[in-house]
Specification:
three-stranded antiparallel β-sheet; six-stranded antiparallel β-sheet; mainly beta; 144 residues; single chain; Rieske Iron-sulfur Protein
């Protein structure tokens, strides 16, 4: 009887955990596309990511592309460039100037901080969809 209880407890524990408790799970506007890319920081197109306060846009990944930002050489952020408060459309791809991502749709003035992913003025809106960014040596892996 003791073994049955232990197996039951372990089973409940394993099946009740999620892989990731991401805040993006409840955003009805964006899908969670499969993202798994490795950036070699020795290549010229990604070399700027070796230095803090630099960013690179990866157009071939995500919904509308991904912005990767080097915070301090140990911490990198990676966010979806599709405005999280719009259904993806021809105008929902954000542009980046410094650390501010701006949606060009004329119906609003959504601006987000690419370090935190938060909306600049209305914290009640959805934040940018975040991806994992892990640096190992001169490689930066972006996944979800």
């Amino acid at each position: 009887m003791k073994n049955v209880f232990i197996i039951f407890f372990i089973g409940i524990t394993l099946f009740s955990c999620k892989k990731d408790d991401s805040p993006n799970d409840n955003n009805p506007n964006l899908l969670s596309p499969l993202v798994n890319t490795n950036l070699n920081l020795n290549l010229p197109q990604y070399n700027s990511l070796k230095f803090p306060n630099n960013s690179v846009i990866i157009s071939q990944q995500g919904i509308k592309g991904i912005i990767v930002y080097n915070v301090n050489n140990d911490l990198y952020t990676a966010f979806e460039l599709s405005d999280p408060n719009h259904i993806p459309s021809s105008c929902s791809k954000m542009t980046v100037d410094g650390i501010i991502a701006t949606c060009p749709c004329t119906t609003d003035t959504n601006e987000y901080d690419i370090v935190t992913g938060q909306h600049k003025t209305n914290q009640g809106l959805f934040p940018m969809q975040q991806y994992r960014a892990i640096r190992t040596g001169d490689n930066l892996q972006i996944t979800n």
